Amino acid sequence: MHIRKMKPDDIGRIREIFDQAICEKCKIAYLNPLTSDEMSHWFEDHVAEESPAYVAEIARTVAGFAYIDPYRPGRAALKQTAEISYFVDRDYRRRGVATSLISHTEGECVKLGIKTLFAIIIDNNIDSIRLTEKCGYEKWGHLPEVAVFDDLEVGHLYYGKRIAR
What we know:
CATH topology: Aminopeptidase
Low-confidence stretches: none
CATH class: Alpha Beta
Radius of gyration: 15 Å
Strand content: 35-45%
Mean pLDDT: 93
Distance between the termini: 29 Å
CATH superfamily: Gcn5-related N-acetyltransferase (GNAT)
Order of helices and strands: EHHEEEHEHEE
CATH architecture: 3-Layer(aba) Sandwich
Structural class: alpha+beta
């Protein structure tokens, strides 16, 4: 497995992986696949140094990706805190891809001066909850019934980790 910064050539594969998660309902808060314009905006946001994205390649195929977003942008007191997100293609799950992406992203965040990371997870996404706990994140909060998938109301869990002092 090789982890590197995202490149423009990766955008199609990243979109496929995003769309898989969206179609799996209750894994991510999007309800519809992202449009080309939405993906272009997402890409532009994540080539910036302050909110980078990384891909994991296996045999020259992008197997997954992780990225960070500023937490409450514009609020200077929170500039050392970010949200981490990660996605793995269904054919590459349970091979350590997400764990490796999280670890790599944490290391890069320390270099960027980020000290605290949040993973915000739909509360019935048991696989993601187990993964973040395995990676040392702790449950810091719960927002009950804030997301609606058809008639199913679910909450958001905030998992956090202090990665630097």
